[in-house]
Please model this.
Amino acid sequence: MGISNLNNQHLSQEQEENVKKALQELEQALSMLNINLTPEQRNRYGRVNEQNKLFISKVKDFAKVCQRTAGFEKH
Model:
């Protein structure tokens, strides 16, 4: 069974440049939120492995569903 619902439209050169410009502006606007860690900080905080990702996801879902009972307050 072939795929027949493909979007065959492409961006023009001008549209592509506008998208790139908008992405650069967005990146610049969000740059104040970026935090560069030192190598020591990277070792201290470590990485999240797959098993921990699942746990974090469950906690996040629980917090969404049970906001009142979870003890999380919206600010």
